[in-house]
Amino acid sequence: MLEGLVSPENLSLSSMDMNVLERLKWLQQQQQQVVSRTSDNSPELLQILQFHGSNNDELLQSTFSHFQMLGSGFGPNPNMGFGPSHEAMDGCISRTSSFQMDPVDTMGVMLKNSEENRTISSKNKRKSEVKRREEERTEKKIKVEAETESNMKGKSSMSNTEASSDTSKETSKGASEIHKLDYIHVRSRRSQATDRHSLAERARREKISKKMKYLQDIVPGCKKVTGQAGMLDEIINYVQSLQTQIEFLSMKLAFLNPELELSVEDLYVKQLQDYFTNLPVVIASKPSIMVDVPLFPLDQQGSLDLSVINLSQTTSTEAPSASWETQSRSLYNTSSLGFHY
Amino acid sequence: MASADKPINTDVPEKDVFALHFLQSLSNLRRQNTFNSPEKTNDRVKKIKKAAYVSMARAAGGTNRLWSRALLRRAAKENNKVVRLPRRKKRVTCLRRRRSNRRDPVEEEEAERLRNLVPGGGGMETSKLMEETAHYIKCLSMQVKVMQCLVDGLAPK
Fold first, then answer.
1. B65 in any annotated domain
2. Contact call for A330 and B4, based on CB within 8 A
3. Which of B107, B131, B137 sits opposite A228 (nearest CB)?
4. What's the complex ipTM?
5. Phi-psi bin for B33: left (phi > 0), alpha (psi -120 to 50), beta?
6. Does residue B10 lie in a domain region?
7. Is residue B126 part of a domain?
8. Angle, in degrees to the nearest 10, between helices A164-190 and A86-94
9. What biological process terms from GO does the record include (chain B) (predicted)?
10. What is the mean pLDDT of each run of 10 residues along chain A (341 residues)?
11. Which CA distances in Å does A52 have to A47, A48, A66, A73?
């Protein structure tokens, strides 16, 4: 869009039968202006606009000074870039002889650009040095292109006048696209790290590691292990041990009370709740009674008393409810004694 | 992916809830009168174990948790009952096609082992599996505590 301004300017210049030398001089002037002046140029632009408005009908008889004014109006815009792309230059060459160019149209473009200048000027103060370098580069370009233009002048005198205003817009669009492309190109270099898949993968890993940390807090003895594989191994071992513990305990229950004299009706639920809430949190797997039973294989975590089972069988056949009450009483006694479970 | 900041919720109910559920299931076992017939102790152990797991699943999550759902479903299958659990709104997508080769093979193998351990872990994503495992571990330890208490209480001196 910035080259859009340059293109009608070039157009006007080339429409005048200027020498190449004159053009080069003018370009140098422009550069000096760019370097010296600040970006506050809106009143000048307005003056030029008024000038154009008054000379709306006399555009055909427009003199060289008129165009120089136009050029000076364009000159102080530092953010022009002054790098007319090849497309823009082509557009210029095609319209070298367009004298009947609609001035209102160009004025509209200029107005827009002046508005943009105000916003962009603050940003461009930082980039002024970079712009100067670019201008140095583009100056060379312009020199080469001016030479080619002087060669092309004879051919381009037949171009269409009506399409000039439309093509100026198109060239401005093309220029803006080029600018956008530049911007995207800069981002595309960064986009290797911000790829969608790698982002998703990273998020997933973060999620998993967060949950692994949470699991580390739950599983005892997991904090010493480093590495996810070791942690997972520890977790698996813990789950397996818990499952075997449940199996073992259910086995114990089956042996302890084979007739299953438990029933909820017999239990005093509140007392049971009290009992369970009074329990210490830590499980101590130490059994209360240590009787060695060589026949029973599962004696790693506790011991089973087969004689006790027989006893309980006999007692349960005699008076089940009474036996349960005595058991519960014994339960309470153990809890009050601070028995470690 | 959007719920990355959601806190992990593995709240487990109190001990007495587990105890009540377990005692209820034991009394149900007794009512079925299968224990009066001369049975092998192996069957009895199996039944008590199953009762323990099912009561744990009921006490902990019901149908809200994936592992408890899987446990209840398995138990219902063993009973040859067609039990329709209420359908969950969000289904976990199948994991098989997602797995790629670039991940750590050892870690993946460990995760596979964990999947076999946790009920219903076959179709879970890894992060979901971790969450379910955390809840499952909590419930298992709670159940172990309850059963230990019962055993210690029932064992006469």
1. yes
2. no
3. B107
4. 0.81
5. left
6. no
7. yes
8. 180
9. regulation of DNA-templated transcription
10. 42 46 65 52 47 44 44 44 42 41 46 49 50 56 49 44 44 51 52 74 86 84 79 88 89 72 50 54 37 35 38 36 40 38 37
11. 9, 6, 9, 12
